[in-house]
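Hey team,

Filing this mostly as a record. A colleague (T.K.) asked me to run one chain through the structure pipeline before their review meeting, and I want the input and output archived in the tracker in case anyone asks later how it was produced. No errors, nothing strange. Just documentation.

Input sequence:
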Amino acid sequence: MILHLYFARRFALALLTIAAVLTALVVLVDLIDQTREFADFDVGFGQRVGLTMLNVPKTLNQILPLIMILGTISLFVSLARSSELVVTRAAGRSAIRALIGPVAVSIVIGVLATTTLGPIVAATSKQYATLAETYRSGGVSAVSISEEGLWLRQGGETGQTVIRAARSNADASVLYDVTFVAYAPSGGPVRRIEAGSAALRDGAWSLRNAKAWPLATGINPEANAVEQDVLEIPSTLTLDGIRERLGTPAGVSIWDMPEFITQLEQAGFSARKHVVWMQSELARPIFLMGMVLVAAAFTMRHTRFGGTGTAVLAAVLLGFGLYFIRSFAQILGESGQIPVLLAAWAPPVASILLAMGLLLQAEDG
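Output structure:
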């Protein structure tokens, strides 16, 4: 037990060190990207730093498998150089049993990444999108799904407009049973519009069978209501922006995902992408464990045998290959080419089986 705790502590320290180094690199690179992206806007250095900090959790979440691979390589290369693995084998413990501590740490990190880091990424991603939209256009645009249907918000110099639609077509290009409520810059409502449908084209909403009520003080809304077969309303929203926000599962916490999937389907959208993402998040601890086993399979060897650099390179390349296969399987699952459970769970399980085969071959082959 003491030996397992020792290896687990060494592995955790290696992960923290690598994560700190990669975080510093991520912050530097992202700050440069934010500076270039907002060079034409009135965005100060402090605001760019704030945007960078909001992007850090998302990037770390994406490179977590790489951190696990590099942490495992760092651990076992250092153990091999100090001959601690040789001593462990001489004491009657197999190298596979030495993996119990690091594997346990990887499972704990995977669970925390799914249950804690994922929701943090969802919150920071939303805040980043809101601030970036504000800095670019001076207004805030938002998209959300609820039991009442699809909710949109667009902003500009003339004020905010809240849009509610009972349902939408599959690609969000047309909204049905739509209500628009326009607000003045001071915050009060100035107009309400109801329409049978609304299509977003060329920076404007095209409303069909619309009826508009003025909401200014001292005016009878119904007496001054106007009906139009076609009504154009300027918009700061884009179809790509709406689809991106609706189609980005990472912007929703894993805890809220089941309810969000239900609401998405009720609004007329396909939720298959979100289902695949949720299952992939649930399988993440197994995938991270597979990354640890893969890296260990190439680096649990004494340095006197030589070829350490080649083994490290092979571990990294195989890890990248498994990550690519996992991403490719998710794409196939999202497109309906393979079942959802197969897309989410097959790559993590396959990585563990592959790594165990390599380890057993090295130890007992």
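Quick notes for T.K.: Residues 100-137 form the longest helix (38 residues). Residues 142-236 form one domain.
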